[in-house]
Amino acid sequence: MTPISPGQHILIPGAGLVGSLAGIWLSKLGFRATLLDKRSKPGTPGYDQSRSINLALSHRGWKALGEIGVHVDIGPVALPMEGRIVHDMEGRTQFQPYGRAGQAIYSVSRSNLNRVLNERASAEPGVEIHYRTRATSIDIERHQVFAETPEGQRTYHGDAILSCDGAFSAMRQAFQTSDRFDFSQDYIAHGYQEFHMEPTATGDWAMDPNGLHIWPRKSFMMIALPNPDKSFTCTLFLGWEGSEDSFAALKDAGYARMWLQDNFPDFCARVPDFAEQARKNVVSSLVTIRCFPWYKQRSLLLGDAAHAIVPFYGQGMNAGFEDVDILMHMLPKAKTWEGLFMDFAKARKPDTDAIADLALANFVEMRDKVADPLFLFQKKIDARLAALLPERWVPLYTMVSFTSTPYSEAWARGREQERLIRRIMDLPGVEERYLQDDWLLDALSRVEFGMVVTR
Ligand SMILES: Cc1cc2nc3c(=O)[nH]c(=O)nc-3n(C[C@H](O)[C@H](O)[C@H](O)COP(=O)(O)OP(=O)(O)OC[C@H]3O[C@@H](n4cnc5c(N)ncnc54)[C@H](O)[C@@H]3O)c2cc1C
């Protein structure tokens, strides 16, 4: 066992979102950190920005960034999205709030966030970032990382290692080849392709920037998030295979043009070069990665390296930032690296499993249910109960996106609340009476205590 003492040197393969935050925080706690990233420095030639352009930042992410003061750099360029803006086939829109008035998730640019975090990390006295340095393997026994650098092979030594090198973590390979390491990788049947929607000819937003736009089409969907330059990044989620609704079918340029126009007419009207973009823009896959244990001796997997999830709850980065928040709050009280990593991972794993499941379930909600009148009615009762019983009743989306309620607890409570609402929806006259406070509270107590009067 290795005692923890300030001044020790921590290696962090991966200077992305999670690794950079961890490096800054370690420095503030009095440790030294060396971050290794295969990419070029943000803003320099060769910097690869191939992954999605903007991300939804919500409470958990803001909280972690706020703890080390980074939120002040992000706040001015984060665009609030207070609800879903759902587009039907005729281009009519409906606004569905995410929570109470004033509650919002925020569209932030991935590259901006990465740049700010990298700059903040570089400015820390205890942190060094080595760019164009690809970590290739790890010696867990000797707590060493081997890397390819522009100058050739190099071996880095640390007192502990936090591997933050993303979903396809090279560091995890060493864990995978060791005994009793569980690992699963599940690709969903859908991929995604991004489109860019420019501002209008007069330089204005092409759509309302105050929400996350969704075109739900049952088995597939498009979404759009606003960017500070008044453009939108739109993402099409569609099955890989199939003869009609699939990326395979869209390989035929003529079919792609017709299909996009048929399914997203108002989107196509705002993106004149949509067919060209469909032909050129890359299609990427979506994966859930689960593994355990995340710790071996003085090494720990963190962020996507430990738990990559599909993006439908907008929580992957938020969960990774929360990992760092929790770990760094445990660190000052911990005695050994081995003990810290084990305690953190065991406590955290049920929550990252829960958000992985929630993210998969939310895909069905986004692409299908948001256009279903019964589902919308369920949401109205949910919101009504939350307003009447604020201490007791918190909608699932609110718990996940606007609180730090552990994901597993949020999910369990959310399932129970949904069960109760469904039983209320079976009561006679519910459509007319749910807005009467006394009736709704009485209905809740009746369904909770099993005295349900069904139609
Ligand atoms: C389409 C899409 C949309 C998403 N939307 C959201 C959203 O709205 N909200 C949200 O919270 N999350 C979202 N996510 C998830 C989010 O992108 C990830 O959870 C987040 O980026 C994880 O951060 P990370 O630092 O763990 O990994 P990454 O961001 O992947 O960073 C890993 C870093 O490690 C470096 N690296 C990789 N391999 C090596 C190596 N061998 N050696 C050295 N360096 C290496 C990489 O260059 C990178 O800098 C989305 C994901 C996708 C795919």
Structure write-up:
The chain has helices at residues 17-28, 59-67, 71-74, 110-123, 171-176, 253-263, 265-270, 274-280, 316-330, 337-367, 373-388, 396-402, 407-424, 430-433, 437-448, and strands spanning 9-13, 32-36, 54-57, 79-81, 83-87, 93-97, 105-109, 127-130, 134-139, 144-149, 152-157, 160-163, 182-197, 212-216, 221-226, 232-239, 283-292, 295-296, 299-301. The chain is of the alpha/beta class and 455 residues long. It folds into three domains: 9-77 and 109-185 and 286-362, FAD/NAD(P)-binding domain (3-Layer(bba) Sandwich), CATH 3.50.50.60; 188-285; 372-448, no CATH class. The chain has a seven-stranded mixed β-sheet. A six-stranded mixed β-sheet has the order 8-2-1-12-19-18. The radius of gyration is 23 Å and the shape is globular. The protein starts with 8 loop residues before the first strand and ends in a 7-residue tail after the last helix. It binds flavin-adenine dinucleotide. Flavin-adenine dinucleotide (FAD) is lined by residues 13-19, 36-39, 52, 55-56, 134-135, 164-166, 170, 192, 303-304, 311, 314-318, 320.
CATH superfamily of the largest domain: FAD/NAD(P)-binding domain
Number of E strands: 19
Strand order within the widest sheet? 6-5-14-15-16-13-17
CATH topology of the largest domain: FAD/NAD(P)-binding domain
Taken together, the total number of domains comes to: 3
β-sheet strand percentage: 15-25%
User: Structural class of the helices, strands and pairings?
Assistant: alpha/beta
CATH class of the largest domain: Alpha Beta
The major beta sheet can be summarized as: 7 strands, mixed
Alpha-carbon distance between the termini? 64 Å
Runs in which pLDDT lies below 50 for 5 or more consecutive residues are none
